[in-house]
Amino acid sequence: MNLFQKLFGKSNSTNVQPKQAESEHEEPTSDIKILLERVKKKVNKKDFTNALIDVNKVLSIEPTDFTAYIERSKIKRELNDLIGADEDYETGLVLMKKKERGLKALDKAREKDDANDFKGAIKYYSEAIDCTVNFDFVYYYRALAKKYAGDYEGALLDFNKTLEINPTYSEAFYDRARLKHHQFKDYDGAMNDYTTAIKLNPTESKFFEYRGVLKNEMNNEGATNDFNKAIELNPKRGETYFSIASIKFKHRDFKGGISDLDKVIEIGLVGDTSYSMYDAYYFRGSYKSILKDFEGAIEDFSRAIELEPHKAEVYFERGEARLALEQNELAAEDKFMAMKLGYEEEN
Fold this sequence. Notes:
This protein is mainly alpha-helical and 347 residues long.
């Protein structure tokens, strides 16, 4: 008795007559999930000949799909191809065990990601991909890890691969846009990706926010519309107000910038940002100093120091504000701390 007879019992395939194709009215597809559903339906109807055609198509699209090998092994058994059935079953088991190793590697990669060990994460994402866990999101997360590790070229390649697998992955378009925007200065490419992300998901506020930032850098009049849309979609996203405040600073609208930073401090920040609450207090303090609100500036600089006590520039700026109020001893202490932390005053 061979392996399949032990697993499934004695074959009754000699009584099975191949049916005429039942797929005449089926829409052509390369979707593996749909094809496997068709395979199962045809097997249930004992239409093994056409089931074999569909499962072969699955394996031509994805030759590492262990479920397809297992399904084909059952079909071949029913068609009395016992040698082929054994071979497919063994191949399916090998691929299944390989996939299991890949999934374990993926778990380790996510743990490394959560610990900000991006090089470790890259190692395990790569191991997962080598073990056929090559889903779109695995390449996406490896791309992010490479970006955070400073491997921008590698990140771009992985974002490209993600979108090759899944051309509707809006977050991948968005993150590739940010990479092109900030690391490669490919403004046209970034604009195209931001716009595609918006078309795919027009309810995500950050897509409009960062396209607005890029439009402002390109002196595009549409920046204001994008910021307004971002706030309309999510009025509780502090990052958007921070982006607007930064642009107002460039245009020397310090009062407007302070108003936006008030919102940031009221709402807070929630990740997916290059800003921090330290930045919010530091920049608001800087704007207040420019407007000669030195007491307000000192309050903000002091709060920033509570959050990041090892930043030299904030001690220097607080010292400048104290000097303006003739708090000379306190100003000297701040200037001394700034120099101790490595601040070099410009001539």
